[in-house]
Amino acid sequence: MTNPEQDKPEPGPDASVDDIHADIAATRNELGQTVEALTAKLDVKAQAKARVDDTKELLVDKAHTVQAKGTEVGARVVDAATDDEGSVRLVVPVGASALVVVIVGVLVWRRRK
Question: Mind telling me which residue stretches traverse the membrane in this protein (predicted)?
């Protein structure tokens, strides 16, 4: 990876003072950019903060996705549990009762062991 400015030769012995000053300014600029790049690579605290910020952003996006899916699933459950008039279908209380009976049965069975 060569920089086009690096391919530029240094001013020769017959160069003017302005050419030499321009070369010095360009060299200082390149050196400053190199130091900034190295400092950024070595700044562990800044890298950790950037990674934390990226992770936060990812988690917020995931939370919004989960929230949207939860709302969608909730609407489906309500639609499935109610009839066209909004009354609870008979299947839901029977299913809930059966679930309670199964849970109580499992708890009693585990205590007897």
Answer: 90-109
- Could you tell me the residue ranges of all domains in the chain? 1-42, 44-81, 88-113
CB 5 within 8 A of CB 30: yes
pLDDT in tens, the chain (113 residues): 455 555 677 888 888 888 889 999 999 999 999 999 998 888 889 889 999 999 999 999 999 999 999 888 888 887 877 877 877 666 667 778 888 999 999 999 888 87
- Sole residue written with tokens 């062991």: 113
Enter the pTM of the model.
0.41
Evaluate whether 3 touches 30 at the Cβ level (below 8 Å).
yes
